[in-house]
Amino acid sequence: MSNIVPVILSGGSGTRLWPMSRPERPKQFLSLTAEETMLQLTAGRARGEGFAEPIVVANAAHADELEEQLTSAGMPAQALILEPMGRNTAPAIALAALTAPADSALLVMPSDHVINDVDAFHAAIRAARPMVDDGWLVTFGITPDAPETGYGYIRVGDAIAPGVHRAARFVEKPKRDVAQEMVASGDYAWNGGIFLFRADAFVEALRAFCPDMLDAVTRSLDAARREGVRIFPDKDAFAASPSDSIDYAVMEKADRVAVVPVSMGWSDVGSWDALHAISERDEGGNVHGGEVVMLDSRNCLARSDGVKIAMVGVDDLIVVASGNDVLIVPRGRSQDVKLLLDAMKNG
After folding, report:
1. Structural element, H or E, at residue 226
2. d(CA 179, CA 159)
3. Fewest CB within 10 angstroms: 32, 82, 152, 190, which?
């Protein structure tokens, strides 16, 4: 078997972790759960024996930061594909699939997720690999522990190999009562957005279901500017691609789609509440980082990259300070940060 090529998708803006995460330096470039940044942690879990150097697909504005972080961690990219604009995940993955050797297995990973049990992740990859070499498109289904409405779900169908099942159905961000029923049934997994398939299998799926997308991405690479490992797809050609997710464009339409259910301590760290839930807490249930002093406070999250935060006698509060901006929100309401940013933009 040839080495697996990690494909790291780093196009997100991470606005739900404002004010630390911003479009110019989104959360994948931050050290939120460890000394390493989330980008470095992502690259590190697909490194070593059996893995090739990664292909990274990212916003062109982040090129220097990406290259510096990966190089300093000893994980240089074999290719850094810099999108002129975001067109969602399907075109981004198409860029990587057309850049990698056609017969290579691509492990597609978002750059800003957490996986605490890397051994379980690698075991799931090993289970999937024979199916991938046989042309299947494989996704990894996260064992759900709550009826989350912000995630997509995958119905786990009949077993087709040890640890591997047919993906019977995709459900996008259900309402709470539907999510409760699906979790209670035990037949569904969260869609974590992590995939494994051969490059040529993905290209052929695009040819069948999204020929306009494949044509636009191919033309953008044919006319790309190249500087060392950096690849700059042609802007006009890439802009002509439909904007669509891999789930809608390919996974929900293809016949040979499999899912590997796995419990691996996964989180998309999609909010400050999510970060509090997965972080190590002190005896009062607090999570803090930077210049923070707390007295008689419980179940709070406080982080600062500059000014000192002092908190006395408060419970269930999130306080985040970065530069000249301070966020204060009750714990449980941090998903509303996006609404807050919209209000500030319009106000």
Report:
1. strand 225-227
2. 23
3. 152
Alpha helices in 102-162 (DSSP H): 118-133
Residue with tokens 């196009």: 11
Which overall architecture, per CATH, does domain 5-267 show?
Alpha-Beta Complex (3.90)
Q: What is the pLDDT of residues 70-126, one digit of tens each?
A: 999 999 999 999 999 999 999 999 999 999 999 999 999 999 999 999 999 999 999
Residue type, 208: A
- Answer yes or no: are the C-beta atoms of 22 and 125 closer than 8 Å: no
Task: Tell me if residue 98 falls in helix, strand or coil.
Answer: helix
* Gap between the Cα atoms of 172 and 185, Å rounded: 17
With a CB cutoff of 8 Å and minimum separation 6, the contacts of 264 are 115, 116, 117, 118, 120, 121, 124, 142
Say what the pTM is.
Answer: 0.95
42: enclosing H helix or E strand: helix 38-44
Q: Which residues, other chains included, contact 106 with Cβ-Cβ below 8 Å and sequence gap of 6+?
A: 4, 5, 6, 7, 55, 93, 96, 97, 100, 195, 196, 197, 198, 199, 202
Q: Are 292 and 56 in contact (CB under 8 A)?
A: no
> CB neighbours (10 Å) of residue 77?
21
CA gap 251, 53 in Å, rounded: 26
Domain range annotation of the chain: 5-267, 272-346
* Amino acid, res. 163: G
Distance CA 344, CA 347 (A): 5
Helix (H) or strand (E) holding 199: helix 199-209
